[in-house]
Fold each of these.
Amino acid sequence: MIHIACPSADPYYNLAFEEFVFQTFQEEDVFLLWRNRPCMVVGSYQNICRETRPARLRRKGIPVLRRISGGGAVYHDLGNVNYSCITAQDGPVDYDKSLAPVLDALNAIGVPAEKNRACDIAIGGKKISGSAQRAAGGRLLHHGTLLFDADLSALEEISVQGKNECVQTKGTMSAICPVTNIRRHLPGDMDVETFMERLLAQMVPEGRRRILTAEQDAAVCRLRDEKYRSWAWTWGRTPPFTYEKSGTFAGKEFFARYQAKQGIVSAVRVDCQAIDGLLAEGLLEGAKLDPDGFAAVCAQLAGDRSEELLDLLI
Amino acid sequence: MEKQLSLPRLRPEMTSGVLCAWLKAEGETVRAGEPVYEIETDKVVNQIEATEGGVLKKLLREEGDEVAAGEAVAILETE
C-alpha cells in the first residue's frame, strides 16, 4: 500500500484527485487521506433536489458535488477526515474486508470504534464513519468519512432537516443516523492533523509516501474542471423526477409543479396571485435545473422576495 | 445470435440492484470487456462489462429501475 498526499481542501479538486488515482494507479494499492471545506457530497445516483435543500445551501454558500460511488448524501467540513482505499477487486462485494484495516488502525490509536450496520463504524452505537464503493475495470474504490471534530449542528441542519419532501423520484435514498465526533472519545486529546498523521502511520509505512507529478496534477485539474465543476455531471445526472409544492408566497396561495429529466425542466405550472404565473412558466420551461439559474428567474419574478420564492421552487 | 445480458449477483446475499446508468445506447456496438451499464447495490456502484462483443439490440430496462439479480436488462446480438 502506498500513500499519495492530497494537500487540497477544495472538494472539486479532491474528488477529481481521488478519481484520477482510482483510474491511473492500476498496479498498486493506494491509501488517501483528505479533507474538504464545507460542502455537500451526494452519491452517484442521487436526486439532489430530494436529498438536499438547494436553495438553502446556495444561501449558505455550501456547494453540492456528486461523487462516483454509491450511497447517500454527506455533509463535509474540515473536521471530517475522508479516507480512500484503492485496491484490486477480487471476489464479491465485501465491506467487512474493506473496513477491517481502518478499524484496526483506529483501535490502535485509541479510538474505541466498532463496526455498525453493513458499512458504518460507530462508537457506542453512534456513527462516526459511513462508507461507499465503486467497482470498475477490476479495481475497487472503497472510501469513507471519519467524523473527527465536525460541526455536528451544521450537519444536523443540512443533512437531517435537509430533505425535500416535494420531490417524487427514483434514486438512492440517504439514511439518517445518530452521529458523534471521534475527538470526544479519545483517551488523550489530539488535533485533526495529529489524528490524520497517526492514522496514516498505521496504514502506510514511512517509505511509501508519494506526491503527484506536475503532469498528474494537471490531469487532476482538468478532471476537476471538466467533470466535477460541470453542470452536466452534478445536476444533469439527477434521476428524473416530479416536483410539486403547495404553500404561501407573499401572503397568497402558491402552487408549483414541474418535471425534470436529465436536469431539464418541463411541464411547468406555477399558480399564485402574487406573481405572473405565465411569465414564471415561460422562464422555467426548458431551463436547466440549477439553483443560480432559478435564483435569476426568481429575482425577475419577485424582486426583493426572490429568496422566499426560490425556497418554494427548488 | 441473440443473448440476454442479465444482472449479475455481486455478492451471495444480493437480491436486486438499481440500474443507475446505461453507458451504451440501443443499437451501439460493444466490445468484450467494455463497460455497458452501472448498477448500485449496498452503496456500491458497479460498472458491468460485456463478456462478449456484439450490438446492443434492445435495452429492456430503464435507468432508475430496480432489477432482480439474474433478470435480463438487455438483448445483445452477437456476431
Amino acid sequence: MTLEELLPGSGGFRYNFAFLDEGAKREVRRALLKAVALPGHQVPFASPELPIARGWGTGGLQITMSLIGPNDVLKIIDQGCDGSVNAVNLRKLLVATTGVRTTFDSREATILQSRHRLPEIPLKPHQVAVLQVPLPEPLRLVEPSEIATRRMHAEGDYARMWVSLYEDVIQNGAISLTAGYPCRVNNTYIMSPSPLPRWDLPLLNGAEHLTLLGAGREKRVYAVPPCTSVQPLEFEDLPFTVESFAGMSCARCGSSGTFLDEIYDEKTGLSSRVCSDSGFCVLVREGAIQPRRPTHG
Amino acid sequence: MGYVAVQGGITAIESSEKLNRYLRLRGTSAPLGVAQIMEQMGPLVDRVMGEGGLYSAFHAALAIKQACGDPIEASFLLRAYRSTLRRLVDTLPVRTGEMRILRRISSAFKTIPGGQVLGSTSDYEQRILDFSLADETEEAQREAVNSFESQLEGAGQALQPAAFRAVIDMLRDQGLVPPVPPESTQEPTDITQESPTFPMHRSGRLQMLARAETGGVLALAYSSMRGYGMVHPTVAELRVGRVRVQIPHPWRKGAAVTLGSAVLTEVQIVASMEKAAEDVKPTFSLGYGSCFGHNEVKAISAAVLDRAMRSASLGAPAEDQEFVLMHTDGVESSGFCSHFKLPHYVTFQADLDRLRAMRGANE
Amino acid sequence: MGEHADASLAERIGTGAGVLLSVLDLEKRYGPGCEACLELTGPQRSTNICPRCRSVIALRGVSFDLREGEILGIVGESGSGKSTLVQCIYFDQDVSHGEIRVNGQNGGCDVTGLPRSEKRRLRSRLMGMVYQNPMQGLRLDITSGANVAEKLLEADVFHFARIRERATGLLARTEIPAAFVDRLPRTLSGGMQQRIQIAKALANNPPLVLLDEVTSGLDVSVQARVLDLVRELQRELGMSMIVVSHDMGVIRLLADRTVVMKDGGIVEQGLTDQILEDPQHPYTQLLVHSTL
C-alpha cells in the first residue's frame, strides 16, 4: 500500500518517515527517557492530533512513530489479534509511512504495539512493547480531579486507593477489579498497566524487555524498564489471582494455558474457546511451538 | 488463519470507505463544490475553522465536504492536517481595537461611541422555513445580488470610524472594571505545544475555549447562566470583523509585515461585582471569549466560562476549570466516545470471569 | 476531682515522665503581615486582627511542653486560637514561625519544615485527631469500618483480616454496634459519628490524640457518654492527649494541666486544679467564674 493509495490526493504532499516530524519525535523520546528514569510515573507530552481519532491508539502510535527505524520489524495487535480492525488500521498507516517489515510472529518483532494484551511468549531484551492506554490515571477510581491525583502521587498518599480495595472486599468478598488492575511499580508509584487482563500482569513483573505506555488523548506517557518489579495491589492475606480457564482449551490449537476468548459461532450459536493471542495460536498449529499447558491461573 | 483474518479486516475497512463514497455520490445532485460550501455555508465553515484551530476557509470547506457536513468530524480532519504543517513564526498580537467592524453591539448601553452596528445577523429574523429556497435558480441569485449592489450605489457613503472605542475601556477609565492584569502582557502558553496542567494559566484557558466544541461550551455556560454558579452576564461588547494578521519585519526592526486578515468574534462580558482586596473599591468582574470566524454563541459562552472559572467557590461544574477544559474539546471527547465501539472483548472477558467467580462463590 | 484522680495525676506527671511534644514560640498569621502586627494584636489589645494590614494573628508566641501520658486542656473562647493550635500540631495548617519538636522522632528536632510526605507519615504513626465536625474527620462516602481502616492503611498495614479485626475491635470498644460497622457514617447520629472518629484516631495506637471540641454540638446526655469513653480509653491506653474546649466543665473533667488562650496567645497555664481554684489572669478568672 502506497501513501497515495492510503491518502488519495496527498499527491505532492510529503509526509516525514513515520509521519511525525523529527521535532515531534524528539519531544516524545525526551518524555520517554524521563518515564524510563521514573518507573510508573506519568510524564506529560504535547500529543498533537493524528489522522487516527483520539481514544483509538494515538498515544501508542506516537511512541512507535518516535522509535521506529527502517530496519525495525513491527507487530501490531488488538485484543491479542493481528486481524482486529484497530490493529489493521494502525498497521496501514505505519507501513504506508515507513515501509517497514511486519510480522504476526511475536518472536520476530522488534517493536510490538498492542491494545489490551501482551503476547503469550515473553518478549526478549531487544524487543519493546508499546501499550495503548485510554485512562492512564489509576487513582481516577477514587478521585476525579487531576490536581488532587498529582498531589497524591507526589506524596505517596495512596490510602484512599487502598480503602476502596478494602471496601471492595467487604462488599464482594474479594477485590473485584478486572482489566487494568492497579500495580505498584518499583515499589514507588501506583500505575495503571493499561487495560491488560490480570492474566498478563505476571508477564510485566521483572520482564526482560522495556514496556512503554502511551495515552494520546490524556497526553501522558509512562514506562516500565526491564527487570522492574510490577506488583498488583493486594492484601497480604488475599493474594492476587488471575482469570481462570480451568478445564478449557483452545478449540484450534489445544493450548490450555493461554488467555482464551469466548466466541459464539456465527451459524450455530454454540460457544467455544480460542486463544486470544492469534499469532501464538497460528505458531502452534503450524507446529513451530508446543501447545501451552497451564502454569498459572 | 492469521493472514486470512488480517485480509478480512483490511477488506472490511476498504469496503466501508468505498461505501461511504458511494453513498455520498450516488444521488442525482451534482458533486458539491468546495466554493459553494465556502460561500454559502459561512457559519459552518467558521465553526470548523474555530474548532479545528486552523484559519483557512478553503481547508475547512474541504473538510466539511469530506465529512459530509459533520462539524466534529470536519474539525478533526482540520486538526490532523494542522499537525502536519510546519510552524514558521508567531504573529504579532492582533489588535481587535482596530478591527474592521462587520457587526458590533453592546447590551450595556443604549448608545455607545462609534454606534451600534447590527450587521449581518439572524437574531431578529423570524424563524419561518422559507420554501422558496428549494427552487433557487441562478437567475434569482443574479437578481438578488444585482438589486442589493445597486442599492448600495444609491446610498451615501457613511464613513465607518477608523476605530470603535471598546466599551470596556470606557468602563475601565471610570474605574468600574479592574485594570488590565499583569499576566496579560506575559508570554502566553501554547496549548498545542504543551500538555495541559492545572491550575492553568489564563492564556491557556482562553486558547482551549477558543477551539473548544461549540455545543459543549454552550451547555456548560448555559448551566452557569441558569443558576449552577450564577454568572449573570451583560454583554459589554460583541465585535465581529476583520483584523490584520502581522508578523515582525524580518530585518527592519520595529516594523511589521501584514500577511492578510482574519475574521474574529470577540465578546467581553461584565458580570457580578467583586472586590479585589479589603480596602479597594468594588468593580464589575469581566469575562472574555473569542474565536475564529463569526460564531457568537461560542464567544459569549466562552466569556461566561472564562468568568465562571475564576470564581472562588468551585461548587458548580462550570466553575471547575479542570471540568470545563477537559470535557469541551470536541475532537477528544468524540474520539473517546467513539472508541467504545472498538473491540473490548478481552477486557469484557476479564469482567465475565470475575462476575462468574463471584456468582459461583455466592451460590 | 478526688483521690483516685490525684493518684493517677501524680503517676503521670509527678514522676517526671518524658516530654513527648514541645511547642516553641508558635505563630500563625493569615494575610500579608506587617511590622506592627504583633504589637497591635494579642490578649492585651483584645483582638487578633491587625488594624493596619488586616492580617489575622491566630497564634502568637505559643510555647508549652506535653509529657507522655498527660492530658493537656486548652481552653478559650472563639478567636482564641485553640483550634488553630491543634491544626498546626496535626499538620493541617503550616505555621508562620516557631517550632514543633517531637521527641523520639528525629531526635527531638523541629518537624515544621519537613516535606509533606514526611509529615503525612509522621502524623499517621504519631497522632490521632478528633474534629469538632465529623465531616472534617470522617469520609462520609465510605463505611465506618473503612474510615478506621484508612488510618491503618496509611500506616502501611496491608493485611485484610488484621485490618478488619482491629477496625471492628476499635468500633466495638467505642460502643458502635456491630451492625453499623459496614454502614455509612452519614446514616448515624452525631454521637456515633464522634465515636467513630475516636476509634479512627486510636487505630495506630498513637502516643498523642488531639480532641478539638469533641462534644460541642452533641446533646448533653450524649456528651457525658463520649467524655466518659475518652477518659476510660486514656486510662487504659495511657496516651497523651490535647483536649480543646470552650467549656470549662470538659476541661475540669479530663485535663491534668490546662492552658488558657485569648486572642492567639497563652495568658495562663498550670495544673487544672490550681487554675480552677485560684485563677491569676483576669481573663481566666472571668472564664472560671462564668462556668455554670
